[in-house]
Amino acid sequence: MLTPTARLLVLSQLLFNIGFFLVLPHLAGHLADDLGLAGWLVGLVLGVRTFSQQGLFALGGVLTDRFGAKPLIIIGCLVRSAGFAVLAVASALPTVLCGVVLVGFAAALFSPAAEASLAREVDPDARADTFAIRSMAGEVGTVLGPLLGVVLSASFSLTCVIGAVLFCLIAVLHLRFLPRRPGEHHDEGLFDGWREVFGNRAFLLFAAGYSAYLVSYNQLYLALPAELHRVAAPDQALGLLFALASALVVFGQLPTTALARRLLGRERALVAGFTVMALAFGVVALRPPGLVGATAFVVLLIFGQMLAAPFAMELVPLLAGDRRLGAHFGVLSSAGGVAVLVGSTASGALLGHGRVAWLLLGLLPLAGACVMAFTGKRRAFSS
């Protein structure tokens, strides 16, 4: 049973994703069609947004440890509102870049704070289940956000205004109901947290292995469309497969986590999850006919994610010794962001090499499984 604060933080993830995916799916089209930006500039804007989010998570984490989660979540929501407001009126590239930096930096503020706060709010044995519920709520928001955008049928500027208002309401919600707890390291140096995190070799090893999952998951946006193009799939196939992925998480995450905990335990569930993700790439390398390979890839990749991700989140506080959770969650996300940037560049170059590309991509989660198995022998994995 979740506490009221834990329920608020789960609800927050739902609302965060609704607001984000209400606006962001339309950004590229707005930049190209309405503002007339060249394709490389559109890519630059999207890349700046990703970097300003993932790259700055580590900063948001140490700020959480210093000042507490509540102010970081509230300020992050207000910063995202400001970012959407800037995008609503932006008509030139510098203003657009300012808007996307604010949108990305906002998540770097509130995401590590929300994750650290949720981890502290629940019993250690219930963390995997709680993060599974949070993942499910986030996936619902990922689906509802674009659907709401379609229902509204509004201009991009009006959609941005609606998103800005929503994040202001989320800030008010947290101002009213989220308990104020001082940062656990408020009397220490701001960047002492980074020194502690980067001195934690077990955590750094885990973060490297976890990054393999993030790079693999990102192939839904890169390798999957390439496979659909190869088999000459209809245009609507990609949307249907994304809908399938969302449905699997919404309806399958909680049963999968409960069953994995009972039958496998934390360590073996992590190893199994990464192994299943590796298998997803191997199936496509076999070149099954039609949409069989793409469908199997989505199902296996999402199933592997559902097995591994909640237990990975449960492990962060254990590896951190329940200290500086903001800094640890922040560095974990930033490491993943760097890995995705490098991994996406490499996988984009590989995808023209057919089966070899899929086999090489499958080695990454397989290496992640080995890291998890090795790290599992450490005392930090004990319950």
TrEMBL record:
Start and end residues of each Major facilitator superfamily (MFS) profile domain: 5-380
Entry keywords, A to Z: Cell membrane, Membrane, Transmembrane, Transmembrane helix, Transport
SUPFAM superfamilies: MFS general substrate transporter
Subcellular location: Cell membrane
Location (main, coarse): membrane
Protein topology in the membrane: Multi-pass membrane protein
Top-level division of the source organism's lineage: Bacteria
Record field: transmembrane: 7-28, 40-63, 84-110, 154-177, 198-217, 237-257, 269-286, 292-313, 325-350, 356-375
Pfam families: MFS_1 (PF07690)
Protein name: MFS transporter
Gene source species: Lentzea flava
